[in-house]
Inverse folding.
C-alpha cells in the first residue's frame, strides 16, 4: 500500500533563527521510503544527522523574512494493522536488553517515579504482559478527554490530574504508567492517515503513540485510537516528546502556518503527481 | 597523582531483586584506571554494558538475604585543577556539534523550559560564554544552602524555589539555567576527594557537578565548591541524575549501608594494600 | 458620577444544579448603590448571604433547561481615581490589625511561602511601604503578557514561571509577592469600565485587582493597568479567586454565554432606561 | 475526665521577632477549660484575639536572646469517644448552611479542584454520606505511610502522589477528597493524649484530624488513627494548616525545643500540682 505523507511549515522571522526539524520518515521500520523530497524557500543550508534514537534530525537556519520548509514522501506500508499478540509476556527486568533499560526510567514529561503508586493502584491486579499494557491503554482511552488545540505541554502528572489532552498527552500518560510498572515504553511520533477508518473531523496533523517491550520485541500501542491501525509511519522515537520535538527554533521565528498530509495514493504515484 | 576510589553497598533483600549500578570509573577522560576490582558477596552473576552516554552500567540481581557490592579502583589523575578558560566563547546553536544538541533540551530534573524566563532575567545581561556560565555558578553557589541528608529528589524548579539541596541539586539547577540560555550542559557524577582543600566535615560521598560546551569542547564546572578542583574522577555523564542513578533496584531490596572513598595514595599503592 | 454595571449569564442544564454567584456590588466601599435589580428566568428560589469577607453571595438552583441570571445596578462612584500615597509606610507585622493578619498567609492561588525567596530577590532592596508595592506592580506589569482567553486557573507559581495570564493572574502574583514581603494583600474583583481611558479592544469583562494594607488602611493597586483608575466597583474581596469565584456550579450546568457591562451613564438614568 | 494539656517552646532570636501562636484550647466544643496559665520568659507583651474561625490567636514579639513560651491547661472532657453515626446522610449542596460553603472550596494545602477526578474515581461508587467519608478515611489510612519527622509542608497532591506524611498530611488529603466530593470538610488541630489506647512510641506532639458536615452537624474523623478516640481537645479549626499554624514567626527567631503534653490526670488536680 502506498502512502503520501509530508508537511509544510511557513515561518516569519525578524532575524536569522537556528532551527531543528524532526519530520522526516525514519529509514528503518515496517515501511519503505519510495521517494522523498525536501524544499526550503528561499534556499538555505540544511544538514541532517541521526540522533541517538535513530531519528533523522534536520538542522537549518530560518532566514529573516518569510520561510517555507516542505517535506513530501512516498512510503510503502504493509497494509497490515498493528500486531495484536495477547500472549506476549512481560520481560523480567533482569532479562531486558541493555538498550531497553533507559525506557523504564522517568523523563521530562513521563515522570514515572511520581505516578508509581497510582500506576500500581490502577493496574497492579492486572495480568503482567500484554494484558497489563492493554489495561493501561483502555484506562487512558476511557478516562481522558481529547481536546484539540489545548495549548501548552503538560507533563504526565498534569495529564493524569486534569484528564484531558491531545494524542501526545495520551501517549505520555500511558508511557508513564508502563514505566512505573517496569515495562519499557517509548514515545512514537509520525504520520498516520485515516486508512480503514472514518475520516477525521479535524485537519490532518502529526500523530503520537507509543511502543512497549514485551517478550523479545517492541509492540505499538495507541491509546488515543485504542484500536490497531494501518499505515503508521514513524518519524521519531524517544523517551518522550522532548526527543521528538517536530520543530524547535532557538529565537524569534514565528510559525505562521502548518499543513500535514498522510493519504493512501494509487500505486505508481510519483512525487510530481 | 594516584587516587584510590571506590564504594561498598550493603543490601538486605526479602527476595531476589534486579539492580543496576553506576559506580565504576569511566574508561575515558583525563584520568587513567590503573587497577580495579569488583566484589559481590555472596557471588552473583554480574554483567556490564556501556550506555548511550558512554557510562559503564552494571547489571546484577541482589539475592535474598544480605548482599554486599564492593568496588575499588586505583586511578591516575593529572594533578591539575579543572581548567579555567575565561575567553571560551559561547557557541552559536547552529554551530553546535550534533551530539551536543540534546544537552540544550529539558530533562526530568532539569526543566529548562520552565525556568526560561527566570534564567534570562538573572543572566541575560551577562557576557555570553564563559562569563555567563560562571555567573550561573556564582548565583547557584551564593543562593543555595547546602543541606546534607535532605531526602527526596527535587527537580530544578523546586530547587530554585526552595534554595537548598545537595550537590546533585546544585548541579541540576545550574544545568537547567545553562540550557535555558542555549548553552549545552550535562550532569556529571563521580568520585572526588578533598585533595588540596581542607577535609570535609562529613562522611565521604559521591559528588555531582556539570559540564558545558563552550567554543569547541566541554568544560567542567562545580557550583557547589565553585572553585577549580583536583582529582575529579567521572563515573557518569548524562542529561541529569536519571541517567546516572548510582544504584537502582527494581523491587524490595533495602540499602543498609553505603561507604564511599576517594583519597590520594602514594605512588606504588596496589589494591591489596 | 453614575455607572451602570451588571451581567447576564445563560446556562443550559441537563438536571437541576446548585449554584453560587458573586456578582453583586458590595454594600460598602467608596461607591453607593443607587438601584439594583436581579432577574432569574425562569423564576427560581434565590437567597443571598454575606460571607466572612463581607461579600454578597447568591445561592440558587439552576433548573433543568435554559436559565438566565441577570444583574443590573446603578452605582454612584466618586469620580476620583485610586488614591496614590507614596508616603504610606509599611506597617510592622506586630502592629498590623488582627483582621489583616490572615492576608499575609499563603492561599490556594497565592502560595507566598513558595515564592518567598523570589520575592526577596526581586524586591528586597526596594524601600519598604508604598514604593515596594509599586515596585511589585511595575514588575508584574512589565514582565507578564496579558493573554485573553487563556484557559485554566493557574496559581501564582505557574504565573511567575510562565509570565502570562489574565488580570486575575496578574493580581494573584502581585498579592503573592506582597505577602511574601509581609505586606497584607487581598484579592479584589468587580466591575470597572473604561472611564477616562481609551476603550478596550475586547468585550467588557469582570476585572481583578488587589489591595494592600499600608500605614493604617487598605489601598487599591492594579498591576494589569498599573495606573490609578476611576470607577472601580467592588463585588468581592478575599484571599484569592477561590473566595470570589464569580460563578460556581455543583454539577453539570454549562455556561452558554456571559455578558458584562460597566459604563458611565447620565445622572438621572434609571434601571428602566 | 480531666486532662492536663499544654506545651513549651524555647526560641533563640538574634533580634526581636513578631510571632503568632495558636496553641490555646478553644473556648467552645465538647470540652470545658477548668484552668489555664500562660507564661512568657522573659516577660513580654502578649495579646490574644479570636480569628474568623473562632480560634484563639496569641500575638507577641520574641525578644532578642532566649525566650520561652509556656501554656498549661486543665480541661474537662466527656470521656466519650468521637461519635459514630453511620446513618448520617450527605447534605445536598443547596441545603448546606451558608457558613459550611467555604469548606467545599479548595485551599492552599487542600487543592480539591486538582484531585477532583481522582476522588470520584476512588469514591464515586460508595454510598453518599457517612459511608463515603469513612471510605475516604479508610483509603487514606490504608494507603499512606506515617513518617515521623518528615520535613516540609506538602500539599494534598504531593501527599497523594508520595503516599506518606504526618497526621497533618493525612488530614489534608482526606479533607481534599471530601471537598472534591462536595462534602464540607475542615481541618482540626489540637491536643490528644493516648487515653484508652496503647502509649505512643514517640514523644507527645500536637495532633491533626478533620471534621465533615453531614446531615445537620459537624462530625470528627481521624484517618491517622482511624478509630474513635477519647479526649480530643480542639486548639483550632480552619481550611487547612495555614489557618492553624501552631507557631509563625516573622523573622529570624529559631525554635530550639518544643515539648507538648496531653495526659489524663486525677480529678482535683490543679495547675500547681
Amino acid at each position: 500500500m502506498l502512502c503520501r505523507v509530508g508537511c509544510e511549515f511557513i515561518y516569519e522571522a525578524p532575524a536569522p533563527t537556528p532551527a531543528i526539524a524532526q519530520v522526516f520518515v525514519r529509514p528503518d521500520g515496517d515501511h519503505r521510503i519510495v521517494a522523498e523530497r525536501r524544499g526550503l524557500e528561499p534556499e538555505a543550508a540544511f544538514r541532517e544527522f541521526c540522533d541517538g534514537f535513530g531519528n533523522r534530525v534536520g538542522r537549518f537556519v530560518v532566514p529573516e523574512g518569510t520561510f517555507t520548509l516542505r517535506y513530501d514522501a512516498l512510503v510503502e506500508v504493509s497494509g497490515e494493522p498493528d500486531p495484536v499478540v495477547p500472549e506476549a509476556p512481560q520481560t523480567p527486568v533482569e532479562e531486558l536488553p541493555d538498550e531497553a533499560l533507559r525506557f523504564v526510567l522517568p523523563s521530562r514529561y513521563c515522570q514515572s517515579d511520581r505516578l508509581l503508586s497510582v500506576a500500581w493502584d490502577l493496574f497492579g491486579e492486572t495480568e503482567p504482559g500484554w494484558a497489563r499494557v492493554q489495561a493501561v491503554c483502555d484506562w487512558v482511552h476511557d478516562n481522558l478527554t481529547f481536546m484539540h488545540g489545548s495549548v501548552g505541554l503538560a507533563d504526565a502528572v498534569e495529564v493524569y490530574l486534569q484528564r484531558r489532552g491531545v494524542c501526545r498527552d495520551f501517549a505520555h500518560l500511558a508511557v508513564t504508567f508502563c514505566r512505573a510498572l517496569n515495562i519499557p515504553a517509548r514515545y512514537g511520533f509520525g504520520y498516520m492517515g485515516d486508512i480503514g477508518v472514518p475520516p477525521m473531523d479535524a485537519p490532518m496533523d502529526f500523530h503520537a503513540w507509543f511502543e512497549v517491550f514485551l517478550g523479545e520485541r517492541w509492540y505499538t500501542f495507541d491509546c488515543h485510537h485504542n484500536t490497531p491501525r494501518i499505515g503508521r509511519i514513524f518519524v521519531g522515537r524517544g523517551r518522550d516528546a522532548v526527543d521528538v520535538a517536530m520543530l524547535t527554533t532557538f529565537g524569534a521565528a514565528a510559525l505562521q502556518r502548518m499543513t500535514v498530509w498522510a493519504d493512501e495514493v494509487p500505486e505508481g504515484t510519483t512525487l510530481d503527481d
In short: The mean pLDDT of chain A is 94. Chain A is about 15% helix and 35% strand. Chain A has two domains: 2-78+246-265, 93-233. Residues 131 and 213 of chain A are 13 Å apart (CA to CA).
